[in-house]
Write a structure and sequence with these properties.
Layout lengths: L1 H7 L5 H7 L2 H32 L3 H13 L3 H9 L5 H18 L2 E2 L6 E2 L52
Antiparallel strand pairs: 1-2
Helix pairs in contact: 3-4, 4-5
């Protein structure tokens, strides 16, 4: 009798040990492992897709994806800290808005170097490209489409070009 009593109380963790040896634990363990692998693959896909939306350079997109593959979970976190803050579409939209605002305000750009120039500039201050000629009488900047100087009413010759000074007095 004493032997039967001692065997049942010898291992207080026998029920826990039996659970981890059971097929139920095997199913739970396999399901958890599969979920971790699926999450890792989803993070790789997300990193690749997000990098394509934010980075122009294919080598950098590949690098971000490889980082996510080689360093599971940590690679995606590193990419999150290093990725550009805005998508390419957002950057393009911002550039369009800036261009539209510049047009409204009257800021134009040099056709050679894209430097901002004002309407009265005769030459670009950055690259020295000749933008327009000045009136031979009053010296004001003339738009190449004008047939007359709006400041002093001097007639501009038909051969006027922004690269030469062909004006009449």
């Amino acid at each position: 009798m004493a032997a039967a009593t001692t065997t049942s109380s010898d291992d207080p963790f026998q029920s826990i040990s039996n659970f981890f040896d059971s097929s139920t634990w095997s199913v739970i363990s396999f399901t958890l492992k599969a979920a971790v692998v699926v999450l890792w693959l989803a993070l790789i896909f997300w990193t690749w897709r997000d990098a394509r939306q934010r980075i122009r350079e294919p080598a950098l997109i590949l690098g971000a994806t490889v980082l996510s593959v080689v360093l599971p979970f940590v690679g995606t976190i590193i990419y999150l800290f290093l990725r550009p803050s805005e998508t390419l579409a957002d950057a393009h939209e911002r550039e369009l808005e800036v261009t539209a605002l510049e047009r409204r305000v009257g800021v134009s750009r040099c056709p050679e170097c894209d430097y901002p120039v004002e309407p009265k500039f005769l030459s670009c201050p950055s690259c020295l490209h000749k933008l327009r000629d000045s009136c031979s009488r009053c010296g004001e900047a003339l738009d190449p489409r004008w047939k007359i100087c709006p400041y002093c009413e001097t007639v501009v010759s038909p051969g006027f070009s922004p690269l030469g000074s062909d004006t009449l007095s």
